Amino acid sequence: MQAFQPTRRSLWALLAPSVLVYGFIVVVPVVVGIWFSFHEMRNFQMEWAGVANYARMAGDGDLWFVLGNNVTITGLAIFFQVMPAFFIAVLMNRKDIWAEKFVRTAVFLPVVISPVVTSFVWILVFNLDSGLLNSTLAVLGLEAWQQRWLDDPEIVIYSLTAVLVWQYIGLFVVIFLAGLSAINPETLEAADVDGASFFQTAVLVVLPQMSRTVAVAMVLALSGGLKIFEHPLVMTGGGPGLASTVVAQFAYDVSFRRAQFGYGATIAITITVLSLVTVLACLWIINRLTVRSSGETDA
Amino acid sequence: MLDRISDLTPKALGGAKTLAAGLAISLAATTASAQDITLRFGHLWDDASPDGKVIAAALDAFAAEFPDVEVVEEVLSHDEYLAQFKVSAASGALVDVFAVNRTDIPSAARAGLLRDLDGAMETNAQWGEALTDTLVAEGVVDGETYAIPAFQIVTHVIFYNSAMLEAAGYESFPDTWEGLLSLIDALNEKDVTPIALGNKAAWVAADPLFSTLANRATGSDWYDRLLANEAKFTDPEFVASLALFEQLSDVGAFNADANSLDNDQQKALFLNEEAAMFIEGNWAIQPIIDGASPELLDNVGMAIWPSVPGGAGAPNAVSGGSGWLWAANADLDGEAAAAAEGLIAALTGEVAGRARLENGLMPSSSLQSTDGIEVPAMLAELSNQVGSGELTLVPIFVLPLPGGVFDVLGKGLQDLMTDSVTPEALAEKLQEEYERAL
């Protein structure tokens, strides 16, 4: 039987459907978004605005405030998702862990639930008077720790981040478990024989062999934090004020509540570029570190 | 847009079996003028809502008068509809007949998207005679009528539990601002939430609470000058209105979780007798009747903000109007345009008006007869007060203003409640947003 020899024409024919779909749902909206960003809507008609939207953005304190919210969420998510997930994965990788399958399922389950559903559940947890959290604190005699979890502008962003960590930590655990399966088991056995503690094994033996997996996890956490939208929208509507508003919701509100499609597009395009640059910069730094660390190992 | 199916001929059915073709021919012959026009009809009230029931009654009346016209409803939720309308308007893809928010009318009319209804106003007795001038004005842009008020609402009513007020030492609702602040203190001392507020979506504070409060402080003249760009948000009288709202929050008028609850939850706090008052529009009357215990229902009273110190506004002014209006696509012509105007007439006509009263809502126009309709006592009282002039309707503060001002005010009032902004700084932000849209 003769093997299929693709010609240039057949390759294009095979690629065409996916290229068309990609172009329609990614390239076209981005190009239209860029075109919008140089216009502003007046009476539902686009008028040329030059770089006015970009100039407005530079001086828009609200935008930089909500971008700060994204940075806070992203930073905390990386710290509290990726790092604990790594140790949980190393722990779960031990064959002697109790009810291993149950624990894996329990940790991963929130990942597959819709953010809207989990947000509604957590609204009930954070409810001021009858919420699970404040009620539990009351039962434990810790009334002084009770908070207005979703109403205090100083706290609300951390409440939202806690929900994100809870929901997506399972994803990182699974990623790390997959990475762990590729590790040479002899190194773990050797560490065990040498009497290394759990922490020493995780940090000194496992981590150096999983730097690429860690890099993937951090980039996922980074992009997840930058594009967050559903949780604040459902749980707080972005409030009080802008205390829990994130960039995606800010762009949405500007476009669809204020009918300023041009400025909304400007924000969206800028954030897309910023996200891209940040993720690429992270990848570059991690690659450099990985190369250096593997070079040192080789030496 | 319109879909014509009059081209349904045997040729179009080529290849079909004889029997089917014959049936099609006979159908085509009988329906050449029947079901000829399809109107796409967009709005935001589902079948189960009181407004949805009114629309269903209006569509039945329309179907009886226009049997040739098929109406296809396209219903979205409130926020989705507001967003979708803006997208459709911007892309020139509005449906044939639709609900339009007051705030979008000037832009849509000036963009040439709305059908001029002046001619229809002259020929339709229902609109010409039964609608009040104040309501009609909401659909007028540059002297032309582009939309017909869908209903009349009063957006500010303080519903209070008179038993709780009595327990706090108040036989009646205070008629001064100082008296109201004292009442709030007295209720707080009794561990009762004075005013239940569910302001997560930011419109509850911005409209039912603030629209009338702003008028108390600024008066209607200042507001008219603001609309004419002769006054500014940074004027002392408007800053004073923001300070009054901030004062309410500072003295503990609201529940501590006011910005994470919605308006259904604020009603629930009142109905569960955990709060002495809540503030919404007349649309809250029916839920109170449906949800209150008989004892509570006997104790529910209605009031409005008292006059405020140094305020220029009339003490009997309440925010209200229509807010949502019916309009038609400017691209319609001929029979389709007539049908669209007929549909709007049905939506604002006698049948719809009676259905509104039956569902505990206020119609936009006066009715020829209310015989046989059992109007809830609270709604009748409110309607009579508005009708007799005991209460004077003033515009819903944010609706004639650009959408950005509504958004900034809604978020800003939340910020005032958490001391994240000062009244002066918020006023400047509002002025900046307003000037951007001018």
Annotated CATH homologous superfamily of the largest domain in chain B: Periplasmic binding protein-like II
Structural class of chain B, by secondary structure, is alpha/beta
Helix proportion of chain B: 40-55%
Oligomer: heterodimer
Order of neighbouring strands in the sheet with most strands of chain B: 2-1-3-13-6
Provide the number of structural domains of chain B: 2
Rg of chain B computed from alpha carbons, rounded to a whole number of angstroms = 24 Å
What shape does the CA trace of chain B take?
globular
**The CATH fourth-level homologous superfamily of chain A:** MetI-like
**Describe the biggest sheet of chain A?**
2 strands, antiparallel
Q: Could you tell me the CATH topology label of chain A.
A: MetI-like fold
CATH class descriptor name of chain A:
Mainly Alpha
Residue fraction in strands of chain B: 5-15%
The class by helix and strand makeup of chain A works out as: mainly alpha
Encode the helix/strand succession of chain A as letters: HEEHHHHHHHHHHHH
> How confident is the prediction overall: mean pLDDT of chain A?
90
